[in-house]
Amino acid sequence: MKTILLIVGLLLVASGGLWFLQGLGIVTWPQESFMIAQTQWAWYGGATALIGLALVVWSRKS
Question: How many structural domains does the chain have?
Answer without folding.
Answer: 1
